[in-house]
Each structure stands twice: as structure tokens, then as C-alpha cells.
């Protein structure tokens, strides 16, 4: 069989297979990775921890008299559920922080659980856009989005 005949046969076979809808590999806000309504993003203990840790980091590393005055507009982002292949579940969140210098900034944070000793507890990583001078989380907090 010639290459031309093989190619023609493959194209005819492909034409018989129905087209399936294409989905993004990592959708945000839809499909299996959509954040559930009862998201942990608005948990007051997590938000209080972010506020406290930010205040400490601003004093130590930014060397600025700045603190988080309020956190609002909390929205869940994508969720990567825990599974056999993914031993730690991850939930990405977004909010707006109002800092004591009068500026409203985006806050991005990631909650991982179970975490800690023997898989008990959770880990929270966060980044305030514009206040990460060493780009620990990438440009404009990219790794937490």
C-alpha cells in the first residue's frame, strides 16, 4: 500500500469519528475544578492568619509601616481535589485587601490540606500584588493564581 492510499484511508476513518468538545486542561471556575459553594477561602481563621503573617512580613522584610486593614471580595478560584495521585488537595483563592496606606490591592492565596505532621492541618501561602519585591511567587503573584 502506498503512502497516499494510507493517508486517504486514515482521513476517511477520522471523518467517521464524531467530534468531541474540547476542554481546557485546567479550567478556572467551571468543570471539575470549580470551587464549591462552601469554599474554605472565606474561613475567618485563614484570613486572620494571612493578616497576622502579612503584618509580620511587612515589618521584617518590606520595612514599611503597612498592614492589612481589611480583606474583602473573597472569591474561590480553582480547586485541585485530593486523590490517589494528588495526596494534597489545593484550593486557590482571590480577595482584595485594603492596606493602611489607603491602597486596595489583589490578594492571592493557596490553601493546601491535609498538611503538617502526619497529614493533619493545612498550609496557607499568600501574596499581595505589588508587595512582593523579590517575586517569591513570580511576577504579580503568578504562581498563586
Write the layout of secondary structure elements.
Layout (H helix, E strand, L loop, with lengths): L2 H14 L27 H19 L5 E13 L8 E11 L4 E10 L9 E6 L17
Antiparallel strand pairs: 1-2, 2-3, 3-4
Structure, described:
β1 and β2 form a beta hairpin. The chain is an alpha+beta fold and 145 residues long. The chain has 2 helices and 4 strands, in the order ααββββ. A 4-stranded antiparallel beta sheet has the order 1-2-3-4, with helices on one face.
Main sheet: strand order: 1-2-3-4
| Intertermini distance | 52 Å
Spans of at least 5 consecutive residues with low confidence: 13-36
Relative helix content: 10-25%
Order of H and E elements? HHEEEE
How much of the sequence lies in strands comes to: 25-35%
Nearest-integer average pLDDT = 77
Computed structural class: alpha+beta
Shape: globular
Radius of gyration: 22 Å
How many beta strands in the DSSP annotation? 4
Biggest sheet, in brief?
A: 4 strands, antiparallel
Give a brief description.
By secondary structure, the chain is an alpha+beta fold.
List keywords for this structure.
alpha+beta; 145 residues; globular
Amino acid at each position: 500500500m502506498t503512502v497516499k492510499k494510507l493517508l486517504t484511508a486514515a482521513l476517511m476513518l477520522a471523518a467517521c469519528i464524531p467530534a468531541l468538545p474540547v476542554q481546557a486542561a485546567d479550567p478556572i471556575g467551571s468543570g471539575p475544578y470549580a470551587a464549591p459553594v462552601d469554599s474554605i477561602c472565606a474561613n475567618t481563621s485563614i484570613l486572620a492568619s494571612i493578616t497576622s503573617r502579612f503584618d509580620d512580613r511587612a515589618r521584617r522584610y518590606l520595612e514599611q509601616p503597612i498592614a492589612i486593614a481589611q480583606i474583602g471580595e473573597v472569591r474561590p478560584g480553582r480547586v485541585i481535589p485530593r486523590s490517589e495521585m494528588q495526596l494534597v488537595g489545593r484550593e486557590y483563592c482571590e480577595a482584595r485587601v485594603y492596606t493602611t496606606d489607603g491602597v486596595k490591592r489583589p490578594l492571592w492565596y493557596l490553601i493546601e490540606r491535609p498538611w503538617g505532621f502526619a497529614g493533619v492541618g493545612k498550609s496557607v501561602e499568600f501574596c499581595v500584588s505589588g508587595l512582593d519585591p523579590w517575586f517569591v511567587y513570580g511576577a504579580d503573584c503568578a504562581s498563586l493564581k
